[in-house]
Amino acid sequence: MQNSPRNTTAPHKPRHRASRRDDAVPAGWRRTCPASIPYSTMGHNLLSSPRIAACRALLSDMAMSDKFNRNPEQHDRAMNEVFPVYIERVTLRAVMAHLLVPGTCLSEGRLADAFGASRATVREALVRLEGRGLVRVVAKRGWFIPEQGREEIRATCEARRIIQIGILRLTVPLPPDRAAAGLRHLARQRAAMEDGDISHLSFLLADFHVWLARLLDNPILTENMRSLMARSSLALPRPTPHDARIIHGEYHALVHAMTAGDMARAQKLLLARIESAQVPPACPHAPPSPPDLKTALAPVLRRIKRETAHSSPAPNPYRQPETRV
Known about the structure:
Elements: H1 20-23, H2 29-32, H3 50-58, H4 75-96, H5 108-115, H6 119-131, E1 136-138, E2 142-144, H7 150-171, H8 176-195, H9 198-214, H10 219-235, H11 241-260, H12 263-278, H13 293-310
Antiparallel strand pairs: 1-2
Helix pairs in contact: 3-13, 4-6, 4-9, 4-10, 4-13, 5-6, 5-13, 7-10, 7-12, 8-9, 8-11, 9-10, 9-11, 11-12
C-alpha cells in the first residue's frame, strides 16, 4: 500500500487580523491608552501623566474632577470625558487674561498641537465654546473669536447686573469662611500686581466675579457667570497697572462691605464696576493679526502647572500600598 503524500501546506491562519490602526500603534501603548481615546498619549503614561493633575486642579470646582477617584484602570476613560472640558477652560482663561482677543482664528490644528490632542477632541472643546457664545464658525475659514457689538455688550452687562445683585442679596453678610476665601483671592491679585504679571492679573480681576457666583454653590450659575465675564473681557481692553490697582481697591472695599453686612455699599460698588464695563472704549482696538496659539496659551499653561505643583494631590482610594524591600 502506497503511503499518501505528506501535507506540506501551511497551517490554517485565522481570518481575523488586527486593523491597520492597531498595527500602527507601538507595542505597549495600547495597554495604557485604548484606541477609543481621541487624543494622542504618545510618550505619556496616563496613570502618572501630569495631565491628570492639571485637569484635577483646573476642574476642581466641577464634579468632573471626581472622575479620577476611579480605579486607575479607568483613568483613560476619565481623560476621554474631561480633556475637552479642560481645553475649554484653558481657552476661557486665556480670553479672560486678554491673551486671546476678538478676531483670533482658533485653528484646530494649532490647538491640537498646543494641547497634544487630536482634532476631534479640540473640535469638541470648540463646540462647547460656541455654546457659550465665545466662538463662531465661519464656512470655509474656521473658528474665530467674534467681536462684541454694542448691543451684545449691553446685554452682557444687563445679565451681570441681574445675577450679581441677586448674589449679594443671598450672601450678605458673608460668613467667616467665605470672607476668608475672598481675602485669599484678593491676596492673589496683589501678588500678581507685585510680580508685574498683567495677564494673570487681568484673569484674576475677571475671575473675582466668578468667585462671587461660586458663593451660592450653584455650578450652572457659576458657569454662566464665567461665560459672561469672558464676554466682558472681549469687549474691554486689557487693564493698565494703574486701572488694575483701582479695580483691586474696589474689590477690597466690596469684600469688606459684604463681610460687614453693608448691603447698600456693596450694591453701589458692584453696580459701579458693571457700569464701567458697559462703556465701550473710545478707540476700539484694531483687528489683531492671528497669533501663534501655542505662544498665546503658554502663559496660562505655565501658570496652571505652577498651581498644580503647589497643590497637594487628592488621595486615591485605589492606590496600591508601597512595599518595602
